[in-house]
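Lecture notes, part 5. Sequence design as translation. It can be helpful to think of inverse folding as translation between two languages: the language of shapes and the language of residues. The source text, in structure tokens, appears below.
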């Protein structure tokens, strides 16, 4: 089984706490594991020891969280979130098993994928994200890219149809 990645590219670090705590409500979800490194205290921390994702990723930083379940317009299980940031911008990668989207019933798949893409398109608008990539791991390769949510495309039905057929 393959994994699917969703990459929020060049995400502005100043908006990350709003996304993590208000939008995705990660502090209320069941975590399996997490890891962050505090550059100031030079210690490893769990997500629940972190008061601000923005601060822990400053000046540069990485971290990860493995969730039992996450809502991204649809419910996804076993989601690994990886944060990788420089001084101002970074990528947020959601990685999960392919069968969380592509299940047995093709009509359900189309509807699930459409809900996911609409949710991500809203995130893109609300957080001024330049581009969101959905694809098989590694999603940035031309061969594994499924959908790119950017400023030039507004209708993703053709892309969704290609994936589910």
């Amino acid at each position: 089984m393959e994994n699917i990645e969703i990459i929020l590219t060049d995400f502005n670090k100043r908006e990350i706490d709003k996304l993590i705590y208000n939008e995705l409500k990660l502090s209320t979800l069941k975590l399996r594991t997490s890891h962050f490194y505090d550059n100031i205290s030079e210690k490893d921390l769990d997500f629940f020891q972190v008061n601000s994702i923005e601060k822990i990723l400053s000046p540069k930083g990485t971290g990860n969280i493995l969730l039992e379940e996450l809502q991204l317009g649809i419910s996804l299980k076993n989601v690994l979130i990886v944060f990788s940031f420089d001084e101002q911008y970074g990528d947020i990668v959601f990685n999960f098993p392919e069968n969380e989207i592509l299940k047995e019933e093709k009509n359900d798949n189309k509807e699930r994928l459409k809900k996911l893409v609409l949710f991500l398109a809203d995130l893109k608008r609300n957080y001024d994200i330049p581009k969101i990539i959905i694809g098989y791991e590694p999603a940035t390769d031309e061969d594994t890219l499924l959908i790119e949510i950017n400023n030039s495309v507004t209708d993703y039905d053709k892309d969704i149809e290609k994936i589910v057929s």
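The translated text above is only one of many valid answers, since several sequences can fold into similar shapes. Strands lie at 3-12, 31-38, 43-45, 61-71, 75-85, 89-97, 131-136, 145-149.
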